[in-house]
Amino acid sequence: MMKLYQIKKQKMNIQTSILKQDNLIDSTVTNVLEKIEENPNLVPYFVTVKYIDFDKLSHHQKKAESAIELMWSRHEKIHRHITANMLKNFTKKPHLHPIAFDFVDVPGTRQRANIDLYNSRSFHSHGIWLLDKSIIEKWDALISDDFKKITTHNSMRYLESIHAERVPIDELKKTVSYATKLFDLNSP
Fold this sequence. Notes:
By secondary structure, this protein is an alpha+beta fold. Helix content is 37%, strand content 18%.
């Protein structure tokens, strides 16, 4: 397993003026590693949140202009719901809240299919979530139950599934690359 400082030595300089996938990967990995260095109790997980198809939502749930707007408007509620399930009095413990680096994705990006992002009806997100070791037991309980406590809750009807797995530090770059693959579609 690579040490934290070895991974930092491998990082490239980031050009912030142009958002390319490589820049996004490097800056995200840098941010994740800095958070872990600041708090060694943080453990990285790769998390995928899949939403039900926009067309399957009831009419009153489609108030947003597009499926992607609806997805991001619900994303914060999912984080809050998960955090509330892991921590009693979670509003008084912000230092224990998961830290999330999330990216939108649509079906077909792995195969580099022709994607119409604005008109896509189905979205999911991939991200790196950093969890404090003190809540890992409760987090792992959610994982082992396929997050059913979250996805079957009445207020989370727009969720199809949540999947999470621990990420070794030496696999962060590869994992972030996968999470940001939608950005790679615009690369030459």
